[in-house]
Amino acid sequence: MTTAVMSALPEETASILNSMSDRTPLYVGLPKTFRGTVAGREVVHAIVGVGPCRSARSARIILEKVGPSRVIVCGFAGGLDTTAPPGTVILATDFVLEERLKQSRSQLLRRLLPYLPRRIGPLCEPVVADRKLLATAGQVIAQAPVASGRMVSTWIPVLNPATRASLRTASRAIAVDMECAAVAQVAAQHGIPCLGIKTISDRASWAGGLQFRRNAARWAGRHQSIVLQWLQQDDDL
Description:
alpha/beta, five-stranded mixed beta barrel
């Protein structure tokens, strides 16, 4: 049984990659993709890129060319719920993707858009996380603050507090990222179980970007240690 571990950025899963034995590169058309083992269990590590479009395309390549038995998406997410402060590990119970909004051609406006109030686009049908994976992950997560709930994925970062509040109301999610729901949709289309494990890196505030850079280094190990322990302890592998 092969587990595919996917993240948007290398630093989100660097410890997992470094823990893999017998690591060899996989030439599937994606950079930084490796096959190896963790505690004798086969793992594929892939950097799928930032955003729904890139992550979905990369996930489809991995699923079709490698054929893993299950997928874990891990990394960082923005907080939508005040009860889940930075450092909280999120186990995503289901995933919902905001439909793509029309993008401005102005480079300046695209850079400012994450900080500006905006309307929330239509939301796709939720994809439910695999219940068995949720249960087994929950057994090894006691060492970190944890919350379970919906993960919403958007096409652009959401740093404006009012927009995050609207997103929370519209989606009923406790965290926001830009990859989980897109990867979960692709996994569901291929009939492959998917699990999302993310660490909250920033609150809903204007300083979200600064919080991310500071907290990413501080708490990168939380979701990674859970994934590594889960890989080592899961008897189904």
